[in-house]
Design goal:
The chain has about 400 residues and is of the alpha/beta class. The chain contains 14 helices and 13 strands. The strands form 3 sheets. The protein has a 6-stranded mixed beta sheet, with helices on both faces. Strands 8-7-6-9 form a 4-stranded parallel beta sheet, with helices on both faces. α9 links the parallel β10 (about 235) and β11. α4 (about 110-125) packs across α5, α4 packs across α8 and α8 crosses α9 (about 240-255). The longest helix has 16 residues, at about 240-255. The structure holds pyridoxal-5'-phosphate and zinc ion (ZN). Pyridoxal-5'-phosphate binds near residues 138, 239, 301 and 379.
Length: about 400
């Protein structure tokens, strides 16, 4: 078992590049590069049910991940999270098949661990000595932990008002922490500049091909956990969009392999009312977003005013017949309380935002009672204790 990675492909024009060198965005169009695999060969040589029998979190899907030598995998046990049937909430909302993908159980408490494990493992394999990472918070914490584990140097750049938990996990694991007076975009510009000056590799969301590959494993797991069936809808709290883009790619690969049948689920992008560039572009029928001015939300993971891969998020939402909607901070915090009291799930505000979105879509009749619907709880509420006094 190991990677069937074949080449990289520009998501704008389709031009291909060898996968054997450290890569950022596509040289042709300066857009996202996707990793492409030899799926016909993989389909002949790898048995779906053998993959299912493996243990080992997300690396059970090693053939569909980019790392060529297993010795290069930097892991803390990411992935393999439960898909919880939410029967109590389902009853309340009149839904018969409602599930929560509980990503709060990942190392460093969020699904960022998946993308970071894949990207850092591959960057190390391709010879990166050190890394820079701009982050709204949780990606920095994850990168700090995985770099410590992999023995790599890391400089993180994040807004100075990120949650305490994110600062502490960066300090605890020994990365260099730079707090930026600004938002994720400002942190990104600084990280890229420092990377250029110091010969480090920058891990910005979707500006290198492999974080999306790690997050893709959420889609692979969901299909496996549903008995190799595709769900009807996935409700996803959307910031930079790596999760939506990765899962859509996962379902397309599974369909191409013939490991599942049907069509990909409707992707529903939930954003915060104080930062909703994707919702606006979706409603206006535009192929890309405009920067959202004065972005503000207490859901730090959703505070991404101008996602680099906006065009891919919008494609995933539109091609699957999904939708995009924004919810308020107050509603998110209330929904944290509801997820806790109804299902015992200690969710982050971003994850709770999906419940708010779900209720609205059920009310409007966009989602049907018997559809298989998945709420993505992207992280643990334990990183957001500062919000909880308000939820009781
Ligand atoms: C980063 C983050 C998000 C947004 O994820 P994207 O895939 O970048 O859209 C949502 N929730 C949490 C907790 C996050 O850390
Ligand atoms: Zn191109």
């Amino acid at each position: 078992m190991y990677s069937y990675l074949a080449h990289l492909e520009c998501t704008q024009c389709g031009k291909t590049y060898p996968a054997g060198a450290l890569s950022t965005v596509s040289p042709c169009c300066s857009k996202v590069l996707f990793a492409r695999y030899d799926l016909p060969k993989l389909g002949r040589e790898v048995d779906r049910d053998a993959v299912e029998r493996r243990t080992g979190g997300m690396w059970r899907f090693a053939e569909l991940l980019p790392v060529e030598d297993p010795a290069n995998v930097v892991t803390l046990g990411e992935g393999g999270t439960p898909l919880l049937e939410a029967t109590n909430l389902g009853k309340r909302l009149g839904l018969t098949r409602l599930f929560i993908k509980e990503e709060g159980l990942n190392p460093t408490g969020t699904f960022k661990a998946r993308g970071i494990s894949a990207a850092i493992s591959r960057a190390g394999e391709l010879g990166a000595a050190g890394l820079t990472m701009p982050s709204a918070g949780n990606a920095a914490g994850a990168a700090a932990a995985y770099c410590a584990r992999g023995g790599m140097e890391l400089k993180v750049f994040m807004p100075q008002d990120v949650p305490d938990a994110n600062k502490k996990e960066c300090l605890l694991t020994g990365s260099e922490m730079n707090l930026v007076d600004g938002l994720i975009g400002d942190a990104g510009r600084l990280a890229v500049a420092v990377a250029g000056e110091q010969g480090l590799f920058d891990l910005s969301t979707l500006k290198e091909p492999y974080r999306a590959e790690g997050k893709k494993t959420m889609g692979l797991e969901i299909a496996l956990q549903l008995g190799w069936k595709l769900p009807g809808a996935i409700v996803y709290p959307t910031g930079g969009g790596t999760g939506i883009i990765g899962m859509y790619k996962a379902f397309q690969e599974l369909l191409e392999l013939g490991w599942v049948e049907g069509r990909p689920p409707k992707f529903i992008a939930v954003q915060a009312s104080g930062c909703q560039p994707i919702v606006k572009a979706f409603q206006e029928g535009k192929p890309a977003s405009e920067p959202w001015p004065d972005a503000e939300t207490l859901a730090d993971g959703l505070r991404v005013p101008h996602p680099f891969a906006d065009y891919l998020i919008l494609q995933a939402v539109r091609e699957t017949g999904g939708t995009a909607l924004a919810v308020g901070d107050r509603e998110m915090v209330e929904a944290m309380g509801e997820l806790g009291s109804a299902e015992g799930v200690v969710a982050c505000p971003e994850g709770a935002a999906t419940l708010v979105g779900l209720k609205r879509l059920v009310h409007e009749g966009f989602l049907q009672a018997d559809e298989t619907i998945i709420l993505l709880n992207t992280g643990s509420g334990y990183k957001y204790l500062h919000l909880m006094a308000d939820t009781i």
